[in-house]
Design goal:
- The protein is an all-alpha fold.
- Helix content is 35%, strand content 0%.
- The protein contains 4 helices and no strands.
- The protein is flat.
- Part of the 30S ribosomal subunit. Forms a tight heterodimer with protein bS6.
Length: 80
């Protein structure tokens, strides 16, 4: 049975923003940039969600963790 065109989704591959824009640096003090990679609960978003490459996702994770240490970003919220 063929799939209907309405059900087929065209998935566009996400491109790493840090590879695309070379002048953007990952810094733990830049909370506006890091908040794009943290969920509303405070969890670090996955690579498949953000579209980052491996190296930049690791750098974002380290920056978020450092930012949490100096209380610029919150830790994971457990309230329901």
């Amino acid at each position: 049975m063929p799939k209907s065109p309405a059900r087929e989704k065209v998935l566009k591959k996400k491109v790493c923003t840090f590879c695309k824009e070379k002048n953007v640096q990952i810094d733990y003090k830049d909370t506006t940039l890091l908040r794009k990679y943290v969920s509303d609960r405070g969890k670090i978003r996955a690579r498949r969600v953000t579209g980052n490459c491996v190296q930049h996702q690791r750098d974002v994770a380290v920056a978020v963790k450092n930012s949490r240490e100096v209380a610029l970003l919150p830790y994971v919220s457990t309230t329901r």
